[in-house]
Request: fold
Amino acid sequence: MIENKSLIYGLVIISGFILVWLIYADQGVDTKPDLTENETPLILVDGKVPPKLSDLPAHLQYIDEATCLQCHATERKMNFGSGPLIAKKMPHEFRENCASCHLLEK
Reply:
């Protein structure tokens, strides 16, 4: 018969563990947390966390101050095809690079 039964049994058990691990290892568990989900800016405005930028086309990339002020110098109604929106007036003095405080929503 087989001389090394314990060796074969050990290999079968190890193979079984490896098989179970391969099947169940990737079951949608995200080992890396989404760091941007809870990300907050380093700068507070009047002690408040600045609101996140919505995913409107104009917010996707910072261009310059004039681009931001086209909508946010005064309160203004706008329509991007999905319905009317109100661009709120910027409640503070202008700061260079709006994206340094206001993060894009994910």
Summary: The first helix runs from residue 5 to 24. The mean pLDDT is 76.
